[in-house]
Design a protein that fits this description.
The protein has 15 helices and 18 strands. It is an alpha/beta fold and about 500 residues long. Bound molecules: zinc ion.
């Protein structure tokens, strides 16, 4: 019998067994981005933690129904629209930022959630939730038309964040979405519209006058609309515990009387140079920066998974380089398994693949212990390469090793795609590689392939004429263009090597 899935629960501050209430589908809510500019990679550490989580939940045998909201109306978006000039609507800010977010997500190999609700599409549900809270005496309208949640009326307020309720000043109010634990007070769930809100298309009719939802309320309304009054698991970055998730609990449980989420889990920060990565300190790194630095999605995933999600992770150039090298090592092994002359492997290779899959699975079931899973992958590639050197002929063992690689791809997403390359046979015929079960070649430029094949044929002629200086000159010329070559019994194999990593 396999080990149960265990996951830290922020509510109890313990690692606990976790299973979905219905035994089949995990109803998961993950707080998504505020779409007003390109997300920084600190945000993507959180989304990668949640991506690993959904992969692990599937490994545990469950289906996942993940909802990730897109905050497309809030204080920051309206401020951005306002500073972009008169007549700029929030939609003009959020549409390109949303497209950018999805492109960045895909670059990092993050699986798509099942639903991406936009806050502006759930305004009636948000108004209905505010009405319920007002009807139950948990919220009240202030003179300016803003509706506040009265935290003193919700006795369990502060449970998730372990807030000391003795520090609460009754009746004090906070209208903005961001505030600290030290200033916990009645918070705005519906905000009276200001002229900037109207100008940006961020105001709606409500029983309390024109206004817009507060950020905290948006998540409560969308989560309950799509996952029901009680979900299995709610996640986010650690800075969302207070006030965002505390307020989500108050609004949701205050309205329904039911437990909002059965389990809570939060990911730690990504730090660079020891400082919390956030736009407000001007310490921005984006997925575009990673792309421009030649860091692949697989390499960044590897870097993130070298540290447990509940530990602070420091981003350094050395760590990025080490992860780029690590995934290149995994990728080269994956390519080696697909080479046409590889017809089989040793039975021992099948055994190390089995052991790796068991160890990765056990590590992920144990509170998403990704560093331990990566260690098992590394050991598989190291031992696997040693077994490949023995030139075994067992096709079933080779198939098992290939499914081991596919398993790593599914569970962790740290296998880079095959590098473009090819083989020019001894008779001068050009063959594209890699083939086999990894399928075709992405990004192969036919003109490049034709050029390389032509140069390699010329090199073969030079070697045939024993003009080794000319042959070596062609090798150097290709390397300058980012093409590495290797001679084998089947001909000369080439690979694009500048895009490694
Ligand atoms: Zn949220």
């Amino acid at each position: 019998m396999t080990a149960p899935f265990r996951l830290y629960n922020t509510m109890t501050r313990r690692v606990e067994d976790f299973a979905p209430a219905d035994g089949k589908t995990v109803r998961l809510y993950t707080c998504g981005p505020t779409v007003y500019s390109r997300a920084h990679i600190g945000n993507f550490r959180t989304f990668l933690f949640e991506d690993l989580l959904r992969r692990a939940l599937r490994l545990a045998g469950w289906q996942v129904e993940q909802v990730m909201n897109l905050t497309d109306v809030d204080d920051k978006i309206i401020a951005r629209a306002h500073s972009a000039g008169a007549g700029t609507t929030i939609a003009a800010i959020t549409a390109p930022a949303t497209a950018q977010f999805f492109a960045d997500r895909d670059y990092l190999g993050i699986e798509a959630a099942e639903r991406y609700p936009r806050a502006t599409e759930f305004i009636p549900q948000m108004i209905a939730l505010v009405e319920r809270l007002v009807a139950r005496g948990l919220a009240y309208r202030a003179d300016d038309g803003t509706v506040y949640f009265a935290i003193a009326k919700f006795p369990t307020y502060g449970r998730l964040s372990r807030l000391d309720m003795r520090s609460i000043r009754p009746g004090a109010r906070v209208a903005q979405d961001d505030y600290s634990k030290e200033s916990a007070q009645d918070f705005a769930i519906w905000k009276a519209a200001k002229p900037e809100d109207e100008a940006a298309g961020a105001a709606w009719d409500s029983p309390w006058g024109r206004g817009r939802p507060g950020w905290h309320l948006e998540c409560s309304a969308m989560a309950m609309a799509l996952l029901g009054e009680t979900m299995d698991l709610h996640c986010g970055a650690i800075d969302l515990i207070f006030p965002h998730h505390e307020d989500e609990i108050a609004q949701s449980e205050g309205a329904t009387g039911a437990t909002f989420s059965r389990h809570w889990c939060h990911g730690e920060f990504l730090l660079t140079d020891g400082a919390k990565m956030a736009k407000r300190v001007g310490n921005v790194l984006t997925v575009l920066d990673l792309q421009q630095a030649g860091v692949s999605g697989a390499a960044f995933r590897h870097l993130i998974f070298t540290t447990h999600y509940r530990q602070v992770l420091n981003l350094t150039d050395d760590a990025l380089a080490a992860s780029s090298a690590a995934v290149a090592y995994i990728g080269e092994f994956a390519e080696r398994l697909e080479l046409p002359e590889t017809v089989g492997a040793t039975p021992a290779l099948a055994a190390v693949a089995e052991e790796m899959a068991t160890r990765v699975r056990d590590a992920l079931m144990d509170d998403l212990d990704a560093p331990r899973a990566l260690a098992a992958v590394f050991e598989f590639v190291r031992a696997g390469n040693a077994e490949m050197d023995r030139r075994g002929r067992d096709p079933a063992a080779l198939a098992r090793a290939r499914s081991g690689v596919a398993f790593i791809r599914d569970a962790l997403g740290v296998v880079p795609p095959p590098r473009p390359g090819g083989l020019v046979g001894l008779d001068g015929t050009a063959i594209s590689e890699p083939r086999g079960q990894s399928g075709g070649i992405d990004g192969m430029d036919p003109a490049l392939a034709a050029y390389v094949a032509d140069r390699l044929r010329t090199r073969m002629q030079a070697r045939g004429a024993r003009d080794f200086a000319a042959a070596d000159a062609i090798r150097d010329e290709l390397l300058k263009r980012g093409i590495a070559i290797a001679d084998s019994g089947a001909g000369t194999r080439w690979k694009v090597v500048t895009k490694v990593g």
